[in-house]
Amino acid sequence: MSEPLLVQLVRTLARPIAESDRARARLHLLDWLACVAGARGSLPRHLQSLMVPGEVGRAALAGNMLEMDDVHRAGRLHPGPVIWPTALGCGADGLDRVLNAALHGYEAMVAVGETLDDHHYARWHPTATAGLFGAAATAAALFHLEPGQTVSALANAGSVAGGLWHMRHDHVLTKQWHVLHAVRTGHDAAYMAADGLTGPAALLEGPQGLYAGLCAAPGAMAFPQTWRIHEVSFKPWAACRHAHPAIDCALELRARGELKAPFRVETYADALTFCDRPDPATETEAKFSLQHAVAVIASGRDAAPDDFTPAVIAELAPLRAQVAVAEDAAITARYPAHFGARVNSLELIDTRGDPERPVDEATIRAKMHMLAAWGGLPPEQAERACALALEGDDAAAIIDLLEEWLG
Questions:
Q1: Which of 394, 181, 360, 359 is nearest to 402 (CA)?
Q2: What is the pTM of this model?
Q3: Eight-state DSSP code of residue 174
Q4: Are the C-beta atoms of 393 and 56 separated by less than 8 Å?
């Protein structure tokens, strides 16, 4: 009988961490801080001050608001909004400790998320489901848990996995609540495991475990030699990740002078499930609209947060009417390993920000400046965030920064 999957997963977390791994984690930390900066005014003030006390809790809610958070394609989930508030909320002072714990969190969250099948993704929000394991692994590393305790932490956190997708049908904050729930639950599971609260090691594959309850045909868990954070993509544009391939194609065509109406978008089936929305009425709906995404680029805009406001939604209605969308079976067959699309005559297999088409540090710095400005912060605050995330070793200073932004 093979060892439980969580036992095998926790063993991989003991692998060495190189400086290049921490350097990659720093980029993801800055990317998350940029998302928080841009969304700092998006939450109701009473919700921030009364229901979710503390700067890390508010940051957990804000980090996913703009749809610009990092993404793992095969897992179809967003690790950054879960992992970074967990890592910063556990009281570590040295940033290297936070970065090491975050690498553990990304690893666990992606490892579990990659095993979740199409049946799961059709009904459940993987950032919420797998996020519980990522948050627990992050907190376990910072609390110095033994391997057995870490297994219990992951198991107990995962035992309450859920997060229904129905919130996609309403203009609500449930998606952000899912992130905060994962952060809090993972933290609490690790904290209690340190005091002896045990959990079932076969929680994933057991007869009444997560796979039995939430999947039809779960995939095999892989244990690569390199840290999975290197597989995670960055998002350059303020829209659902399923709209990014079409945005990328449209930008390429526009640069060539070949983006002309009518527009035909062909892409994978899930992109249509989530983003076939010809008549968006709200900012959230516009970010989940292939039609609006292409219209934004055709109008000369760059898919920044201000391109999804009600005024722009109304202005671009005629252009959206010229966008037709359809599934392409070959593009679907490559998904989710590759998020691709075709707009008119141009097809892209991978999208800017993916490991195959990486963005550099300068791009993440520029994203920080752009979103800080959108969130009403001066350029010196963006530079401060860049210095703290990319060059510093003071986690407490990052907490102070969040307090200033969100307090």
A1: 394
A2: 0.95
A3: H
A4: no
